[in-house]
Specification:
This protein has helices at 12-26, 38-44, 49-63, 66-71, 73-87, 112-121, 137-144, 217-232, 254-257, and strands at residues 98-104, 126-130, 150-154, 157-161, 165-170, 185-192, 195-203, 208-210, 213-215, 238-243, 281-286, 288-295, 306-312. It is of the alpha+beta class. The protein is elongated and about 70 Å long. The N and C termini lie far apart (55 Å).
């Protein structure tokens, strides 16, 4: 393909869009949250800005714009820095101390037994569930009991384990503005062959996207409350699993992500199950490393389950 001098003159709009895309990727924390929580809204979908880069690349080739093609190196580099590591294979494939599964099973799930079998088939040590309802709870207990004889349930969240559980208690993460009955956090100690581990299961308040932007005030308050509880936890290591209604890039989860490690490898988009756009189901750790996370097959829920491998003894303290 032979390009003349005008190739450096046309496509300046495309070049400008490439610069803007690179800026959003590299400097997303600078996007203000003061109006409609726009910064948090952007951070829900940061990996998808890679599609914008692809579209701009196609347009630059069609336009035969050299300046646009060169400028596109900026968002490519920014995306690779931000998200590229998640695409890499594990540094030590198959090496882990624990496998855990996290799943919002949905309070409208018509097949709790099938859902439980799907989760157990992944062979995890720990299974965290949210949106447990009284009618379905006995089904989960019966189906999981042969492989997971230990469990703890508080409100609508539960933890099943191959290893003995002690010290189970409710964790209060209910924002003051919520007046309804609401119990969505628990803490237990799993007595594993690798030592005692503090395990938290949480379901943060939902967020809504509307004309005024992202409604996440209660979610942010609840994340702050949970972050303070984790900070005060004396036992190490700590594993947190839950539907946090946010991606790990969202500044609303900073009270947690600043204190815990998140997955080093894997995207594991989990919501909505029909066409996953983001991972809002999270596995985090302290004094341990979440080495890899992946999505599991669809169940009767509107979320996909996620399974994570955890290496103990290293990570954020």
């Amino acid at each position: 393909m032979k390009w003349d001098r005008s190739a450096w003159e046309r496509g300046r709009v495309l070049a400008g869009l490439a610069v803007v895309t690179a800026g959003l990727l590299a400097f997303h924390p600078a996007v203000p949250n003061s109006v409609g929580h726009l910064g948090s809204l952007l951070e829900q979908f940061l990996p998808w800005l890679g599609l914008v880069v692809v579209v701009l690349l196609v347009l630059a080739l069609l336009r035969r714009s050299a300046i646009a093609l060169v400028t596109l190196l900026l968002p490519v580099a920014a995306w690779a820095y931000l998200c590229g590591g998640l695409l890499l294979p594990e540094t030590t494939p198959g090496t882990h101390d624990l496998i855990v599964v996290q799943h919002n099973v949905s309070d409208e799930n018509a097949d709790p037994a099938g859902t439980a079998r799907t989760l157990a088939n992944a062979g995890p040590d720990l299974i965290a569930l949210e949106e447990l309802v009284p009618a379905a709870l006995p089904v989960y207990e019966k189906t999981l009991a042969p492989q997971y004889p230990y469990h703890a349930v508080r409100g609508t969240v539960g933890l099943w384990s191959k290893h003995p559980l002690t010290g189970s208690r409710t964790v209060n993460i209910k924002p003051p503005g919520i007046t309804d009955s609401w119990e969505r956090g628990l803490r237990a100690v799993a007595r594993t062959p690798h030592g005692e581990i503090a395990v938290y299961v949480a379901h943060l308040p939902s967020v809504r996207v509307g004309a005024s932007g992202l409604g996440s005030a209660w979610r942010d308050e609840s994340a702050g409350m949970l972050g303070r509880v984790v900070a005060a936890e004396k036992l190490r290591p700590v594993i947190l699993m839950g539907d946090l209604n946010s991606t790990v890039d969202d500044r609303g989860l900073a009270p947690l992500t600043s204190r815990m490690t998140t997955a080093q490898r894997g995207f594991a988009f989990s919501f909505p199950a029909a066409f996953p756009l983001a991972r809002i189901d999270q596995v985090m750790a302290r004094s341990a490393t979440v080495t890899h996370i992946r999505s599991l097959p669809e169940t009767g829920s509107d979320h996909l389950p996620v399974a994570a491998r955890i290496a103990l003894g290293r990570g954020v303290d």
